[in-house]
Request: fold
Amino acid sequence: MTRTTGYLCVIVSSIVLLAANSAAQTADLILRNGKVVTVDANFSVAQSVAVRGNQIAAVGTDSDVMKLAGPNTQVLDLKGRTVIPGLIDTHRHIHGEAQSDYGGDWTPEMQKVYKVDWRGVRTKDDVLNQVKGLMDKYQFKPGEWIHLINQMSLVGLEGGSGQSGSASFAKIIMDDLNRWELDKVTPNNPVAMNLGIPEFMGGLVNSKAVDILWARHGDVIKKYGRFWIDNTGRPDGHLEPPASRLLLSVVPAPDPADLAPLYKKNIEELNASGITTVSTRLPQESAAAYKLLDSRGELTLRMGYGMEWVFGNLPNLDNSLQALAGNIGSGGDKVWITSIAPTAIDGAATRACTNQKRQVAFGVIDRWWPVGQCQTDGEFNGAAGKGAPIQGNYFREWTINSGRYGVRFANTHVAGDRSVGNLLNFVEEIKRQYGPEAAKNWAVDHCVLVNPKDFQRASRLGVFFSCAPKYLEDVAPAAAVSYGELVANTFVVPVKSLLNAGARVVFETDRNIFVWYDIELFLTRKDKRGNVWGPQEKLDKPTALRTATRWAADYILKGDKLGSLEPGKLADLVVLDRDYLTIPDEDVSEVRPQVTIVDGKIIYLHPQFAQEYNLRPSGAVVGTYEELKARRKPGGFAGGGG
Reply:
């Protein structure tokens, strides 16, 4: 080769390399001429955002960002529309709502639960006759576990849920039914029935189930409880946590392959509302179903989850928790583990653990839990006058050892002010024993009742408060009647006071709702009757958006990758049909996303936007939120809340 030829080869190679580098630097998608609300540290607002691969490539002015446009770049002129980061819901039971909303075609054999209908029930015999009918109909094999679910709810407030929350139903299932009554119609199978509250918070089992649980876990059950006894000291079949948690390891579970299609449809609804990430606790089969969708390339939502199935099922807390610590944060950017925690340390609504004195009955089951299910109280052994003596508190030992070994406490129902205080006490104890970095990024979910005396302490300890606006509708009115107006206006979802104290506050729905409705509740605090609860706690729009994006990303352990529109972060973003920052607070529930992008791909389009831009990306769902919601086929078993 001559020297000239060699130089020519070098020049040509350099040109090819420069061209390749230039192509590599161009954007795949640019959204220009918009109002890009970055939610960065300064809450900057830009004109354009560029996406390359699955990351944000640039944010800035139209002229600057358009420099990344290449011949294959898709450019969309937003015509002034607003862009925000994808919304993060830090506590939403999407697996349960998917099964409930889309499980109408499921058979009981697929769901692995068999329903007892309490409509028309007047006596225990009405219940037992239904159970016998189920046993006769399905001809279960002897020894097969049977999971019975009640079509009623005792978690509702007094007078708030009609017949489904009546005290007469509570008396039947709490007092009249026991394992020996259940034995009469289920002689050959171990049976577990829930108590009209989330199944992990209480169950009724027959004698075969008692025999199996006591044979496998007798020492643990006798030490920690909580199980009810009759007047001779025998277990009567009623279980509360941690004993009831043992049922999760024995009752049958649905096949993840059957769950995945239901979950996919539910996710499409959430994408249409602008939600791109959800955090929740999951049973093992649900976690497997979301991973199955991910493996197929069909998961269009990020899932940070707590391992629900572990709590209550560890034979040795010290050794087991130490071994589990490495799981926190493990997984990918689509599905990962955010916590391994109790899932609930008290009850919901009427069973929330509180120090507040009740002026009138708060709910239909006050009689059994007059101050709530106070699982973290050292002496709490279950319902009043029912529980067997206990020798230790499993919840306390779990929590302290979790802090010792770096197992994160989050994704957990903490409703009452007494439970909040107990948990903060535990965090203080952990930090004293194991150092200031222990119990890092721990969280209290819901903000149902938070005592103002704990605001500063929460800030000092660095604990997250994941707050659900829904409790302004579900709890505040009843709390005003039961505990007084002061409690209703200062304890229930006190988000602004927590923030003013320096605490970390994030947004959750904790219900099956269009997310913008609950964001509006953060702004107005107005319930459906027009009552405003705690007006001093109203958030402004930028702060409300931070709780559902930037700050929420820290809760789910992805603050370095999600929550804001900044170069290098994952490209999850939403185009809105109106300017969120300037519309009246009362109109926020009317916001309708036009485009949702996850991991740099358009996965949802509003029909009007699709038509206007002639867009039909492969794999994207086109339809209004209302149209997608109309596909529901309700009837499946939702599982427990909390």
